[in-house]
Amino acid sequence: MVPIISFVGKHNSGKTTLLVGIINKLKQRGIKTAVVKHAHNGLDLPGNFDSDRLFVAGASIVYASSPEFSLAYRRNQEEWGIDQIYAQIAGDVDLVITEGFKGQDFPKIEVLRREVSTSTLEITNVLARVTDFPLEDSVPTFSFDQHEEITAFILEYFKMK
Description:
- The protein has one domain: Rossmann fold, CATH 3.40.50.
- Helix content is 25%, strand content 24%.
- The chain contains 4 helices and 8 strands.
- The relative contact order is 0.26.
């Protein structure tokens, strides 16, 4: 089974920016990742590409394919659960990372930024925290610039390469 780890935190805490650095480090180590981002308030399409325009026009599914990558837009009758998404993607990757899904029981790294909140979330299964302020904690704590160390922590936790 492909492992899943969640990066959770309040809005604008820096989860995506942090993940960009960590995904880059994972790729350098030969780890293929899938990222599932939970969008509480829906998704907005930029509308600048033909595929966006076709979907906005009402197509149920738009699948755009090129030599470099593929992109699929699909209308759902209801939001897909993480289990449905996992079943679609897990066979192609070594690690699934979710951004959000704090209510799930996956291992989590909580991201805190002083300007947003210095209070930790009331969640389970927190393996570590990433902060830009000192925090006395019972789990390992990293700073935002410790991409290499966070990557090594994740790989060690899951006993990966």
